[in-house]
Amino acid sequence: MAIHAFGIATRVKIPFQQAVEKAKAALKEEGFGVLTTIDVQANVKEKLGLDRSPYLILGACNPLMAHKALEAEPELGLFMPCNVIVYEDGDEVVVSALNPAAALSMASVPGLDELGAQGSAHLQRVIEAMHKP
Question: Are 100 and 82 in contact, with CB atoms under 8 Å apart?
């Protein structure tokens, strides 16, 4: 697992669709629902006529955390949902999630450090779950 300035990522050697299903199951286990699924590969093919490797953006939301964030600052909806990306990179699949602590730190809203840390912990467990059988 790697933690970047704005994301938490890992690489796995499993089929793309299996990685997507594992990510969705791990998100559910952590209290997130997938509100949106953007198929970048299909959109690029449809709009530009270009081929690219599989790439999905899953818009994930934890309702309780979202409610708390919006109560503190309605403009935090700009950071929602928390995106999780799944894409092929050679013979591996990358699964990466937004780091809520990093995103919320940009907002400079007092009292959100704990919420950001909780969100980051949830999504770190999602990424770690990619390596479980």
Answer: yes
For 17, half-sphere exposure in the C-beta direction (CA atoms, 13 angstrom radius) is 0
pLDDT digits (tens, 9 = 90+) for 34-44: 999 999 999 99
In this prediction the pTM is 0.93
Nearest to 56 by CA among 106, 11, 93, 14: 93
Task: Please name the helix (run of DSSP H) or strand (run of DSSP E) that holds residue 87, with its range, or none.
Answer: strand 82-89
Residue pointed to by tokens 């894409």: 87
Q: What is the pLDDT of residue 77?
A: 92
CATH topology of domain 2-129: TATA-Binding Protein (3.30.310)
Q: Provide the residue ranges of all domains of the chain, joining segments of one domain with +.
A: 2-129
Q: Which of 94, 88, 4 is nearest to 54 (CA)?
A: 88
pLDDT for 96:
98
* Amino acid at position 73, single letter: E
Inform me whether the pLDDT recorded for 111 exceeds 90.
no
